[in-house]
Amino acid sequence: xxxxxxxxxxxxxxxxxxxxxxxxxxxxxxxxxxxxxxxxxxxxxxxxxxxxxxxxxxxxxxxxxxxxxxxxxxxxxxxxxxxxxxxxxxxxxxxxxxxxxxxxxxxxxxxxxxxxxxxxxxxxxxxxxxxxxxxxxxxxxxxxxxxxxxxxxxxxxxxxxxxxxxxxxxxxxxxxxxxxxxxxxxxxxxxxxxxxxxxxxxxxxxxxxxxxxxxxxxxxxxxxxxxxxxxxxxxxxxxxxxxxxxxxxxxxxxxxxxxxxxxxxxxxxxxxxxxxxxxxxxxxxxxxxxxxxxxxxxxxxxxxxxxxxxxxxxxxxxxxxxxxxxxxxxxxxxxxxxxxxxxxxxxxxxxxxxxxxxxxxxxxxxxxxxxxxxxxxxxxxxxxxxxxxxxxxxxxxxxxxxxxxxxxxxxxxxxxxxxxxxxxxxxxx
Length: 429
What we know:
The protein is α/β, with parallel strands linked by helices. The chain contains 12 helices and 16 strands. It has helices at about 5-15, 60-70, 85-95, 110-125, 180-195, 220-230, 255, 285-290, 305-320, 320-340, 370-385, 410-425; strands at about 30-35, 35-40, 45-50, 100-105, 130, 160-165, 200-205, 235-240, 265, 275-280, 345-350, 355-365, 370, 385, 390, 395-400. Strand 7 (about 200-205), helix 6 and strand 8 form a beta-alpha-beta unit.
C-alpha cells in the first residue's frame, strides 16, 4: 500500500505517537537511494547534501554485498568467537594513534558516548563532565543531559554532574589560538572540584559540527587537551560526524585539531547506515571499564554489522574518498566565497573537506542571525531538488555534509541552485 503524504503523517501520529519530527515544511517520502541521490515516491530525484550516515554513498554496492553475504552465513553475538569483529577492530585501530588500540562495539553512537562517560568515572573516580552549550551527543538518559536542547524535564538527578562552556564561535567571538576555550574549560573544572563533584571528562566533537563547525586552525584544541590532562580528566572525542576522512585533511578530526583523545567514540557513518557504533581507547582504560562494569550488548559487534563496517573502511581506501573530500571541499568553499561576494545575507563561510556551509545574517555589521530566512532557504532548496539542513546555536548556518562520493559536478548543482534560491528569497517574509 502506498499512502499519501497526509495519510503518512496521520498514521505516524497514530502509530508512533505525536510530535515525531520530520524534515521540511513539506516532508519528503523517500523510497530509494543510490550514491549521492535520493528518490521520492513520485520518482523525483534529489541531490543529498545532508546525510553523512551513508558515508560511502546510499546503497553502496560493496557494503550491500558484505551485509548480504554475512547475513546469509551467520549473525550472532560476541559471546561466541568470530573472526569478523577482530578483523574489523584490527583494521579500525590501524587508522588511529598507537594509544587507541582497543575497542568496544555498540549499536549506536549514543551507547558509545554513554560507555565513554562510564569509562571516565571508572578511571578517575569522579563524575563531573563538561560539554559545550550547543552540542548533541546522543539520547540515553545519561548522554541526553549534555544536549541542552534535548534535556528532559526529568533527568534522574544527573544534571548535577554536568557543566557547560560556551560553544566556540569563530565568527562572533574569535579565539584564534584556542586559549579562551581552554580557560573556560579550566574554570568549569575548578567549579566541579569546588562543589565536591570532581572532574572526570570533557566530551566534545573535535570539529564542533553541531555548534556550527567554527573556522579554527589546525591544532586549535591543543591548549584545551593540556588543561584536561593537568586536571586528571579524560578527553573524549566524539567522531560520529567528523571522522572517517570527512575533513579531507585527516582521517580523524582530532588529528586536525592537534590532540590524541583518551577515548574516541563512533556511530552512524561507521556501517553506512547499518547499526554499529564504537568506543576506542587504550587497553588499560578498557580493562578498567570491564572490571568495574558488567557490560554486554547482544547486537554490538555482531558479524553482519562488522562486515558492513569493514566494507566501509575498504571503500574509503579503494576509492580515495578522503582525498576526494579534500579536493571537492576546497572547490565548494571557493563557490561559497563567490556567493558571499554576491549576497549580503551570507555573513560567513567555513568548513573543511565535505563539511562546509554558510552562516546567514540579517546584517553583516551587527551579525544578527537570519534564522527564519535560513529555514526558508532550506525549504526552497528542497523544493528544487537539493537536500540540506541548518544548525548552530541560532539555527542559521547551512549544514552541508554529503556522502563522501560527492563530486565537483554535484557541488556545481548545489551552488547553482543555492544562487537561484538566494536571489529569489527576500530576507523578510
